[in-house]
Design a protein that fits this description.
The protein is an all-alpha fold and 76 residues long. Helices cover 83% and strands 0% of the residues. 0% of the residues are buried. This is CopG family transcriptional regulator.
């Protein structure tokens, strides 16, 4: 495990304390779970962005292939 020093806005800290005390959860565990959740969310966002970009890259090629198939179909 790594130790870090972290500055948190007062409002965010108070909210964290209020919630985690209600959950009876240690601050360290709460923050670790929050960061893990945020990382998972960000990975999904990055994957979605990458898939959209790659989809746009193959879109033109896909349309060309479709036109080629239609031309073959029309020839028969």
């Amino acid at each position: 495990m790594k130790n870090i020093s972290l500055k948190i806005d007062d409002l965010v800290f108070r909210e964290v304390e209020k919630i985690r005390e209600g959950m009876k959860q240690p601050r360290n565990r709460y923050i670790n779970e929050a960061i893990a959740f945020y990382n998972k969310f960000q990975r999904k966002q990055l994957l979605e962005k990458r898939l959209k970009m790659e989809s746009e890259l193959v879109k033109a090629d896909s349309m060309e292939v479709l036109k080629d198939f239609e031309t073959i179909d029309d020839a028969n």
